[in-house]
Amino acid sequence: MSLTELELETSPENAEGLEDRLFALGAQSVELFDAGDEPLFEPPPGTHPLWSSVRLRALFRDPLQAEIARAALQAQDSTPGAAPVGTQLSALDDRDWVRAGLAGLTRIHSGGPLWIVPSWETPPDVPNGVYVHLDPGLAFGTGSHPTTAMCLAALAAVPPAGQTVLDYGCGSGILAIASLKLGATSALGVDIDPQALQATRLNAARNGIDEPRLPTATPDRDPPAAAFDLVLANILAGPLIELAPTLARAARPGARLLLAGLLDRQAEPVMAAYRDAFDIAIGDRRDDWVLLVGQRR
């Protein structure tokens, strides 16, 4: 799946409002960066300073939606009293994402018995090792990114033995396959991207997992209601919020929920979307990323 990046530069006092506006205009994620080369030292307690010039990078699934967002911001820019905003659009090629994911990819110990092993690597000789043999293809998920690594560590710490699993936004299929290798009875992989579903099926076959144990589907229809003991979603903050009712319906009472793909500052709005149905909290942090862990009430 290709993405479109909308890059903006603005003043620090307008950055937070602009970030909210971008999400309202359909951005899947927004990150803030220093627009110059200005060090930001330890702030006083209770303050959240930004640089004197802030660059925002917003990702959109739909290039037309990114164009509409840019037009809306430029129209705002022409309004008297509005702060000026510079905008730039660029397409992110699928192949660039794949190369980034493959760079330096080697076998990874994910915790407990679980190892992620590319097809060109030899599995380590460890007692009772559980190995996921992975070629990511044109899909996200190699086990090296902090969001995927936190999900794998959570699976290794509490293996889903005998459970049914929903992997929503399955990408390469790494989480569904790891769940099955750790004893899950079945897993459903759902993704909007046909290339991701193809990668999941190919990776499942490489791991000796047949389609009845790991079927794949697009999100045209909701997953079966109250059918899953474990619900996984490693995507982005915006879609996670939108999917809260869908994932809540799919989870059985007492089911475990693992949500990733979001930054620390995005955790609270995502948790708020799930609190009606789940007891939920931050379960892990790596770099600026967090893993949310919940249980269906």
How is this structure best described in words?
This is Ribosomal protein L11 methyltransferase. Its EC number is 2.1.1.-. One of its GO terms (molecular function) is protein-lysine N-methyltransferase activity. There is one protein chain. With 297 residues, this protein is of the alpha/beta class. It folds into two domains: 3-92, Alpha-Beta Plaits (2-Layer Sandwich), CATH 3.30.70.120; 106-296, Rossmann fold (3-Layer(aba) Sandwich). Helices cover 31% and strands 31% of the residues. It has helices spanning 12-24, 63-77, 94-102, 146-157, 174-181, 194-206, 237-242, 244-250, 267-274, and strands spanning 3-10, 29-34, 54-60, 86-92, 108-111, 114-118, 130-134, 164-168, 186-190, 216-217, 228-234, 251-263, 278-286, 289-296. Helix 4 packs parallel to helix 5. Mean pLDDT is 83; it is low at 37-49, 79-84 and 95-103.
Which fold name is given in CATH as the topology of the largest domain? Rossmann fold
Mean pLDDT, to the nearest integer, reads 83
- Please compute the radius of gyration using only Cα atoms: 20 Å
Q: What is the structural class? A: alpha/beta
Q: What's the name of the CATH homologous superfamily of the largest domain? A: Vaccinia Virus protein VP39
Unreliable residue runs: 37-49, 79-84, 95-103
Helicity range: 25-40%
Shape: globular
Q: Tally the helices.
A: 9
> How many structural domains are formed by the residues?
2
CATH architecture of the largest domain: 3-Layer(aba) Sandwich
Please report which band the strand proportion falls in: under 5%, 5-15%, 15-25%, 25-35%, 35-45% or over 45%.
25-35%
Instruction: State the name of the first-level CATH class of the largest domain.
Output: Alpha Beta
Number of strands: 14
The major pleated sheet works out as: 7 strands, mixed
What's the order of the H and E elements? Answer: EHEEHEHEEEHEHEHEEHHEHEE
Distance between the termini: 35 Å
| Widest sheet: strand ordering | 10-9-8-11-12-14-13
